[in-house]
Amino acid sequence: MRRRLEVLGGVVVLAVVLARVGPDPFVDAVRAAGPLALAAALAVTGVTTLCCAIRWRALGGTLPLREAVATYYRSQFLNATLPGGVVGDVGRAVRHGTLPVVADRGLGQAVQVGAAGTVLLATAWVPGAVVAGLLLLGAAARWPRVVLTSLVASVGHVAVFLVAARAVGSDASLARLLPLAFVVLVAAAIPLSVAGWGPREGVAAWAFAAAGLGAAEGAAVAATYGVLSLVATLPGGLLLLPTPAPRAELPEVARA
């Protein structure tokens, strides 16, 4: 029941966005996802996935790093293609232990929120940004592997968002886009979506409109980010394909 309500919430948010800006931003998102943008998203997502796998292992994940990366890729692909946006993480928890996965998701999002707060404060109140930055540094000193990998992953997601913004033709400066990216990506973590779609586009439309860039541009950037992120998780989909069984070698007698 809860999962159905979460998906319904995502559908409602998407319906509101469509009613507000129309279908054009979503059509533009598909057109904007060209080869260069897709290549950048694939490369950046490779780095962020590696960082997330390292964080998971630091929090109790028992898989070797190579298997952890493959498992994390599969998890991201399922999150990006199935309703709710967390199905892959649930599968990871069932197969490899709940507590490490919960800690991985929770602490990763906490660091992302902290980074977002630091960036937002820097645009309005520099002393507050300094305090927030010092708190992040303090956390990094205590849990260096967890915080640093989370920060790199967060920066990677922001980088893909900026690629999406340029792909749709946004000419907003980096100083204007950076706070918007953090706000939208924090909203994207809300488990009230259709495979990640819903809150991300709704908050992007609102945030870009509030910044004077237009709700349609915000929806287009968020939708392009969604397309790029989906394609960037395709290695996880390939890892779900069954591998062919090895061919049995014939005995020497049979060959003769």
TrEMBL record:
Pfam families per record: LPG_synthase_TM
Alphabetic keyword roster: Cell membrane, Membrane, Transmembrane, Transmembrane helix
Membrane topology: Multi-pass membrane protein
Chief location: membrane
Domain of life: Bacteria
Localisation: Cell membrane
InterPro entries: L-PG_synthase/AglD
Keyword Transferase: no
Membrane spanning stretches: 33-56, 115-140, 146-165, 177-198, 218-241
Name of this chain's protein: Lysylphosphatidylglycerol synthase domain-containing protein
Organism: Nocardioides mangrovi
